[in-house]
Specification:
Length: 114
């Protein structure tokens, strides 16, 4: 199914109800269960955001699985790395937290919160 074009537009004449139904169908088709769970965890975290490790713990998924879902959600424009400012040369600075192993990890937030 082509989710870019509402194939029923000629029949429903572009009614508001039909346009909204098409948008919901399109949005659902873009969100696998894993993506949906990660988005829900990030929504619960709010502006504090989560690292991939924290998101994995929240949704009971492994780090690599969650990391892949976050990458997909970034490509869809639904999540982003949390920016906390800029350095002296004007480059963005992103928030990081330590993982269990002590490595720094970027914090991810919903795009709508930035």
């Amino acid at each position: 199914m082509d989710l870019q074009t509402d194939i029923t537009i000629n029949r429903n004449l572009g009614s508001e109800t039909s346009r909204e139904a098409f948008k919901r169908l399109r949005a659902r088709s873009l969100l696998s269960e894993g993506r949906r769970l990660v988005l829900l965890a990030l929504n619960r975290a709010g502006i504090a955001g989560l690292t991939a490790e924290e998101a994995g713990n929240a949704v009971l998924m492994g780090y690599t699985t969650v990391s892949a879902r976050i990458s997909e959600l970034k490509k869809l424009g639904l999540v982003t790395t949390k920016k906390i400012g800029t350095d002296k040369s004007g480059r963005p600075v992103y928030e990081k937290r330590r993982t269990r192993s002590g490595s720094p990890a970027f914090v991810i937030v919903l795009t709508s919160l930035t």
